[in-house]
Design a protein that fits this description.
Layout lengths: L1 E12 L2 E13 L4 E5 L6 H9 L6 E6 L6 E4 L11 H6 L8 H14 L15 H13 L5 E5 L7 H18 L2 E6 L2 H7 L2 E6 L2 E7 L11 H15 L6
Parallel strand pairs: 3-7, 3-8, 5-6, 6-7
Antiparallel strand pairs: 1-2, 1-4, 8-9
Family: Belongs to the ABC transporter superfamily.
InterPro entries: AAA+_ATPase (IPR003593), ABC_transporter-like_ATP-bd (IPR003439), ABC_transporter-like_CS (IPR017871), ABC_transporter_ATP-bind (IPR050166), P-loop_NTPase (IPR027417)
Keywords: ATP-binding, Nucleotide-binding, Transport
Length: about 240
């Protein structure tokens, strides 16, 4: 549904030109789950922002299969509006788009799907970090996006909450089948989630690995460990395009 061809992006920093992305070629099939992994500063967020239309590439082009997709974005921070309760935060993007009854129906449905029905009237300050991120995910899903872009959304969560959110995300993806691009610096998380893992280093794609392991995946499993080792070996070697 989305094809990126020869994408490049540069910034001018202290009088010198810095390459953030170079020669990125990437095709996202409809309903796929792609994880992009790499160390901090490798260009992951820049690439995601370009996919979201929040930035423009200096070179290359983005092509859509048919109409431009509806895009939802989930950031590392939940970014909830503190003066609105959970229901109102989720409904915010639907205002002036749907009538009141339609909004209530859609919000109620997504509250059930994301396990938030009992927190409809809770305020953001009353939520744990994991619950706040669940609200942020619900806010994106309620817009019924074709393409869901996620920028390290679980990075600040404790290990137990992170694992729970990973499993919930996979379940939601399997039920609804949006196209997901999930950015992370955690190789284990990339292997747990992605059908395909794109390895990014110094602004270039240095590897692509299909993860042919059934869901739900086991972080202690032998097949998962082999995938992690292969990805780490590529990311820790000198950056060379795939």
């Amino acid at each position: 549904m989305l094809e990126l061809s020869n994408i490049g992006k540069h910034y001018d920093v202290a009088g010198r030109r810095v390459s953030a992305l170079s020669a990125i070629d990437l095709t996202l099939e409809r309903g796929s789950f792609t994880a992009i992994v790499g160390r901090s500063g490798c260009g992951k967020t820049t690439l995601l922002r370009i996919m979201a239309g929040l930035g423009s590439p200096d070179t290359g082009e983005i092509r859509h299969d048919g109409a431009a997709p509806r895009i939802g974005v989930v950031f590392q921070e939940a970014r909830l509006m503190p003066w609105l309760d959970v229901s109102a935060n989720i409904a915010f993007g639907l205002r002036n788009r749907l009538d009141h009854r339609s909004i209530e129906e859609r919000v109620s449905a997504i509250l059930e799907v994301t396990g938030l029905a009992g927190f409809r009237r809770a305020m953001p300050l009353q939520l744990s970090g994991g619950m706040a991120q669940r609200v942020a995910l619900a806010r994106a899903l309620v817009m019924e996006p074709d393409l869901l872009l996620m920028d390290e959304p679980f990075a600040a969560l404790d290990a137990f909450t992170r694992r729970s959110m990973q499993n919930e995300l996979v379940s939601l993806w399997q039920a609804r089948r949006p196209t997901i691009v999930f950015v992370t610096h955690d190789v284990e998380e990339a292997v747990m989630l992605g059908e395909t893992v794109i390895e990014l280093s110094a602004g270039r794609i240095v590897g692509r690995k299909a993860i042919d392991i059934a869901y739900p995946r086991d972080p202690t499993g032998a097949d998962e460990a082999l995938c992690r080792r292969a990805i780490l070996a590529r990311l820790l070697s000198p950056a060379e395009p795939d």
